[in-house]
Amino acid sequence: MLRLISTEDSDSSVSECLDESLNESKCFNFSNNQDKFVVSVEGNIGCGKSTCLKYFQNSPNVEALREPLHLWCNVRGHNALELLYQDPKRWSFSFNTYVQLTRLNMHEHKTEKPVKMLERSLYSTRYCFVENDMRSGILSPLEGAVLSEWFDFTIANRDCHVDLIVYLRASPEICYDRIRKRNRKEEKCVPFQLIKDLHDLHEQWLIEQNTFKPPAPVLVIDASPDLSELHTLYDKHRQEILCGYI
């Protein structure tokens, strides 16, 4: 059963989905009898995912796996991320093919710690980023079909389970402002429309749940406050996020 937790600042449509039973960590069951609790931190570009993982990686029970930007920016000498933003129609298929490989490596990473925390997952790659490029025509119908086939095969045949999704929810305007402030050279040409479209796809997937089914319960955290203030919210939901491991 998919259950949704909201923060006090979330809107009424989200608050109506509040399930108090999620306040008890015992309500979580590990997927497929796995002995690791897998948390995927999801959200738009600039929503604060890296800040979230940095916070929880200080726990002795958590291994936090960041997005492998260093790999995407140096694929045997090629900066795939920068090329994607410069010419998405030319490079989206190549980039997303490589991203699926690196995401799979994250899902299958072995850890001795009881909680494995991922910065995004194969699911958001397909349901948000690839889906956006398919809808906008950046990917051709054939390219979209190939990426979808690879995704379906991988999910069916490899261990990509997720036990909890933490959705860091922030407006496109806030995310875009953070992107501008952090000033990564690969992101200099990121258009606001992309951030808005990705926001809409995250909402459809994780809030409205009318396009694709989330693979795990969804905990929604309002990521609108300044990133330095979000630690309070992480503390509040620490039990749920870490399945009782402090």
Automatic annotation (TrEMBL):
Gene3D superfamilies: P-loop containing nucleotide triphosphate hydrolases. One of its GO terms (molecular function) is ATP binding. GO terms for cellular component: mitochondrion. It comes from the Eukaryota. Belongs to the DCK/DGK family. PANTHER family: DEOXYNUCLEOSIDE KINASE, THYMIDINE KINASE 2, MITOCHONDRIAL. This is Deoxynucleoside kinase domain-containing protein.
